What does this fold into?
Amino acid sequence: MRGFISLAVLLAVGCAEAPLLPWLAATPPDLPVVAGGDTKTIRGADLAARAGVVLVVEPVAGSPTLLVGAPLTVARPEATTPGSSTVLACLDGYRATLRADDLQGSTPWLAWAAWGSEAFAATDAQGKRIALGPYYLVWDAADRGAERPWPFQVHRLEGLTAPAYGAITPAATAPPEVRAGFAVYEGHCAKCHALGGIGGDLGPELGCPAGVTTYWQRAALARWIAEPAALRRGARMPPSGLGAADIEAVIRYLEHMATALDCGAR
It folds into this structure.
């Protein structure tokens, strides 16, 4: 299976014995999965029973890395069911959403250890050491050509049978530029920011009780989206990487939601 190597095969060919390899022998933590208002717990031992070693081109370190993990579908078999979505909730409030369509022909993995290391961490370009556990969603090195989320510190899965951001999706009758702005917002902003409580909570809420466009000057908001550090020293938000047209579209969407969003219902 592409860059996957089962642990059983590794041990059978005499690489080492599991007690000598703590990154293989350790049982990962249990993982809660919330779906339809119910929560079930996926036992770490069950994930370990399906474990393998997968080769990834790890974006934090920027180099090929061997990680120990199991396919996402072991924890959430419904992840590939047409129409479903899976939200990966991270300890810092970041939330990444995978639609079933995103998984066609690809295999994401939930990794919990690094081959050859007792520490499950990566060093970024600034030399900062980043802890990756409890779980790190990664992609086989053979899965190339598409922009994919790599959320780390994943501690919970949430299963959806409706669009993840359905309640803040503009109506089909909304102006085309508003709908275009939502597509950009969904792909770049909703992982960290919420509108009316929907989305991530790593960054501030942008919709309730007042929309961000009602108290930020438009030009300043555009500049902030493009390069937060240009306005505020030590800004946690990174540069968006968006061009002027996409930033304008996001602002048009936020302006629309400032009047369309019912904050009293949330």
In short: Residues 4-160 form one domain.
